[in-house]
């Protein structure tokens, strides 16, 4: 199974997708939604890209390295935004994003 | 975390997405690809729908039940096609699909 | 070309996807983001589902009717939320959603 | 409307997504499916990436340039594979892919 090589990356991407989508939902429920606008935007970007890359890896796409490079950049941007906010969902999301950014950079190399 | 209610469903969907995408890839490498044409088609349908539903659950979508109902039907169709083929990837995929179809039916109820 | 039967539906879905994604972006830039929270959430739901259905139709998916039924419901929910807001992007989005909901209901029948 | 800058790219991406998904469907119905295996694989890659980029542009994603760079590469690979086959759906798909690759390269620059 070719995609087994990427089993750990798949798992990290999945955690990041869940964390970002949960953060998206939780940000929309916060008192100060305006402060979270950039977080909401980047959560969606990051969740969608992680989900896309998961699928690409699973189907043994010939473009995993190139997609992982972009995914790393998106994860890092989302993680940097989330880090600014004290909400637990943001802090957890930042952690998942940074872990995923590193895994994606390795896959892109 | 609202999406924690669906944690087991998320995991079953993820396994099904991976099994279907792996089966898609493996079918395209088989000697007799023509025999696998319907399997290839349904693997993509099922992988994409499982992936979509994973994202929807993670973002606390208000439409999880309706999407899960359609996903159950797609999983069942894919599982029934895979069951016809002796390849290990098809048999494993059929199993993942049937398990996922049941989990989706429960989430749709 | 089997998917030509659905050429008008494809076009309506595409306009709705664009309108919802534009509304998502514009809502995040509004002064009162909190008031737009439900609109932001439903814009994403609707844009993603319209995009998914476009792809499904284009690949001649066997599940277009079932997906169109769910898409109609999501479009209607998004259109009803958008209608409440005076912003031009919301009003335009509401219109696109209602048109798309009707086209999807026809495709689902 | 920020995404209006990209209106032509959106239209080219949409045509490419439709051509690739139609080619995917038509290849699965050909007599010699085995010969079309790589075409089927790349049609899916290309359709999915074009669809992803359409959504990203519509929501004013900050990552359009990076995604367009990868999309250009995928379109080119798919176009080169399709060019090898005489089927009308492959020839039309090759043309749509090459046009889209160029538009994506411009957007990435």
From TrEMBL, chains A, B, C, D:
InterPro entries: Csp_YhjQ (IPR005560), YHJQ-like (IPR044543)
Domain of life: Bacteria
Transmembrane segments: none
Protein name as annotated: Four-helix bundle copper-binding protein
Species this protein is from: Bhargavaea ullalensis
């Amino acid at each position: 199974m070719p995609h087994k090589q990427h089993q750990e990356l798949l798992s990290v991407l999945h955690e990041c997708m869940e964390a970002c989508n949960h953060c998206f939902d939780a940000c929309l429920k916060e008192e100060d939604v305006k402060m979270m606008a950039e977080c909401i935007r980047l959560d969606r970007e990051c969740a969608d890209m992680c989900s896309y890359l998961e699928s690409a890896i699973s189907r043994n796409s010939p473009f995993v390295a190139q997609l992982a490079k972009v995914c790393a950049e998106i994860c890092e941007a989302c993680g940097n935004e989330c880090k600014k906010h004290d909400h637990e969902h943001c802090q957890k999301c930042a952690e998942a994003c940074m872990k995923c950014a590193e895994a994606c950079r390795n896959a892109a190399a």
